[in-house]
Design brief:
Chain B: Keywords: ATP-binding, Nucleotide-binding, Transport. The structure holds 2 protein chains of 2 kinds. Chain A is built from 14 helices and 12 strands. Chain A is α+β, with helices and mostly antiparallel strands. In chain A, helix 2 packs antiparallel against helix 10 and helix 2 runs antiparallel to helix 13. In chain B, the strands form 2 sheets. Chain B has a 6-stranded mixed β-sheet, sandwiched between helices. In chain B, strands 2-1-4-5 form a 4-stranded antiparallel β-sheet, with helices on one face. The radius of gyration of chain B is 18 Å and the shape is globular. Chain B starts with a strand and ends with a helix. Classes of the chains: A alpha+beta, B alpha/beta.
Chain lengths: 394, 235
């Protein structure tokens, strides 16, 4: 009596009770499928959000300072710091945001994001130009009245990228000449206030426009993503030396946001997986119930087998294997159903959701484990039956 | 006289039933030799089933010794008892006790399966056994596709398959009409003539008369043991 025969016997018995076997499996199928669907969809969502964040620049560190009359940091000091730490940073720019109305002839734009930046900004954002040139160091040095327009601005005010080059527009009354247009960023939408409704000027010109003496925002790009924390610490130390108070400045890394987002998402994934896991547990209890019924129903069979010389372990093996085969069969069907459902639901939600090997592996081993564990109790009950009592049962 | 196969010596089987002591076997001593055909007869509750369970290694006595083919079965554990049942005893039950989901071949193969015989050899032996009872053509059939007599013959084939030292028949004709009963009894006689040792348990004296020797059990004790002619004389 070997394992192979026990398997044959188990399959025969499952096949002989198709309806009952299917209902037993159903719990496992739903449990396994829901684990896979939930975990995979959350993963897909996570990948999507990570990508979105990455496009916003995960290598960037935003610095915000509150300049007081007694303690302040100047742009030159910031640049000195940047020059001293070339190993840590690849780019740096002051950032001066202006809320302004833009006019060209009779056309007016009010939602445009107007920002004063350095010549390194384009490279830092990993963007390209459609036409013309970006801001240059000389523009900044001499506070040139030039600007680089977003795709939307070029089209909305001048009716085309080429038409916009060399044109003049007014920012709160001051005239600026357009020297370049940035490539279209958002392929789907073209709207006011969007990623293409932007205008970049030399930060020096912007400072003058806002009538502030100092710049309060800076963006650093780290040279190496792995040294974000180190870079952040360097900036903090530097600013602490000047301000002596960490309430006066804020240093925040985009990658840290991403990290906390990731941990949030993986917690959610685990939580949902756990909820789905409960349904697997319920399925296990279902398997146990059916196996117990099966033992009771087949008491006479067990008696006959024992009278003919079956050992305890033969009977045990028979029932454990039957339970394990039932639940792993359910597990396999569950994986197939779950994978298909994940792909279908994922495509409806516009996510790139694929069943993760982890979810498949875990839910499958859990279902086999359920079969073994919940099959064990009824099996040992069957094995312990006294052959005489078992033979007498009707 | 040939060598003894079954040696029961001063067997007691005592149950506690609701605080009362029930002596299902009350000092039974019995020897059965190889080649005998013995009927154990007794009324319901006489203790003949207990005796059968002990002889069949399904149960162990409370006290006393039981040797089957020289082996001390009376003191065996579950594991060894199962081995004895498997190798030395062929059971024939009143209700045939064939497994309904298995075909005849698979049913007959069962004891061979548990004794660990390989697939080819097993099939060969099982077919041979079915041929002896005249059912080899029907090996693919499920038990419920056969008549009662055929089912009982299949169960006899199963009992014979392992080539046991002892064939133990518990009311083998109990569920059959008189014509098929006749057939089954004749078949058992034939098996005995071929040298098989047969012990048959029955409540029916007329059936018991088919054996060569009759043992009558009453209240857990043997109150008659003699050949069939002596038995007919006291009826």
């Amino acid at each position: 009596m070997n394992i192979l025969q026990s398997f044959k016997m188990a399959i025969k018995s499952i096949w002989g009770n198709k309806m009952r076997s299917f209902l037993t499996m159903l719990g496992i199928i739903i449990g396994v499928a829901s684990v896979i669907i939930l975990v995979s969809l959350v993963n897909g969502q996570m990948t999507y959000m990570t990508e979105q964040f990455a496009s916003m620049g995960t290598n960037q560190i935003n610095v915000n300072v509150s300049n007081l009359s007694s303690r302040s940091v100047t742009v030159d000091e910031m640049y000195d710091f940047y020059e001293d730490n070339q190993g840590l940073f690849s780019q740096m720019t002051p950032k001066v945001s202006i809320s302004a109305t833009i006019k060209s002839g009779t056309e007016t734009l009010t939602d445009t994001t107007v920002t004063g930046v350095s010549e390194q900004y384009l490279e830092m954002k990993d963007q390209t130009l459609d036409t013309g040139r970006f801001l240059q160091y000389s523009d900044i040095l001499s506070r040139q009245k030039v600007c680089v327009a977003g795709y939307y601005v070029a089209w909305d005010l001048f009716g085309g990228v080429d038409k916009a080059i060399g044109q003049t527009l007014k920012i709160d009354g001051t005239s600026y000449q357009i020297v370049g247009v940035i490539s279209r960023q958002d392929e789907d939408n073209m709207e006011a206030g969007g990623t293409d409704d932007v205008l970049y000027l030399p930060y020096t010109s912007a400072v003058r426009q806002t009538k502030n003496a100092n710049v309060s925002n800076y963006v650093f790009a780290t040279a190496d993503m792995d040294h974000t924390t180190e870079s952040k610490t360097a900036i903090t130390m530097f600013l602490m030396g000047i301000f002596k108070d960490d309430d006066l400045f804020r240093v925040s890394a985009m990658s840290e946001l991403l990290d906390s987002l990731n941990s949030m998402m993986s917690m959610m994934s685990m939580m949902l997986g756990g909820i789905a896991g409960i349904s697997l547990l319920v399925a296990g209890v279902g398997v146990m119930n059916i196996m117990l019924v099966s033992v009771t129903e087949r008491t006479r069979e067990i008696g006959i087998r024992k009278a003919l010389g079956a050992q305890k372990r033969n009977i045990m093996q028979q029932f454990v294997i039957e339970a394990a085969v039932t639940s792993s069969l359910g597990g396999v069907i569950g994986i197939v159903v779950g994978s298909i459902a994940t792909t279908v639901i994922g495509s409806f939600m516009g996510l790139d959701a694929t069943p993760t090997p982890g979810a498949v592996l875990i839910s499958f081993s859990v279902s086999v484990g359920i079969g073994l564990i919940f099959g064990y109790m009824p099996a040992s009950r069957a094995a312990k039956l006294n052959p005489i009592d078992a033979l007498r049962s009707e | 006289m040939s060598e003894p196969l079954i040696e029961l010596n001063d067997i007691y089987k005592i149950y506690q039933l609701g605080g009362e002591e029930v002596r299902a076997s009350d000092g039974v001593t019995l020897t059965i030799c190889r080649g005998e055909f013995v009927a154990i007869v007794g009324k319901s509750g006489s203790g003949k089933s207990t005796l059968m369970n002990i002889i069949g290694a399904l149960d162990v006595p409370s006290s006393g010794t039981y040797f089957l083919g020289g082996e001390d079965v009376g003191n065996m554990g579950d594991y060894q008892l199962a081995k004895v049942r498997n190798k030395m005893i062929g059971f024939i039950f009143q209700q045939y006790n064939l497994l309904p989901k298995l075909n005849l071949l698979e049913n007959v193969e069962l004891p061979l399966l548990y004794s660990g015989i390989g697939a080819d050899k097993r099939k060969e032996k099982a077919i041979e056994s079915l041929r002896r009872v005249g059912l080899e053509e029907k090996w693919r059939n499920l038990p419920n596709q056969l008549s009662g007599g055929q089912q009982q013959r299949a169960s006899i084939a199963r009992a014979l398959a392992g080539n046991p030292s002892l064939i133990l028949a518990d009311e083998p004709t109990g569920a059959l009409d008189s014509k098929t009963s006749r057939e089954v009894l004749n078949f058992l006689k034939q098996l005995n003539e071929e040298g098989n040792t047969i012990v048959m348990i029955t409540h029916d004296s007329a059936i018991a008369m088919e054996a060569k020797r009759v043992v009558r059990v009453h209240d857990g004790k043997i109150n008659f043991d003699g050949d069939v002619n002596e038995y007919s004389a006291i009826l």
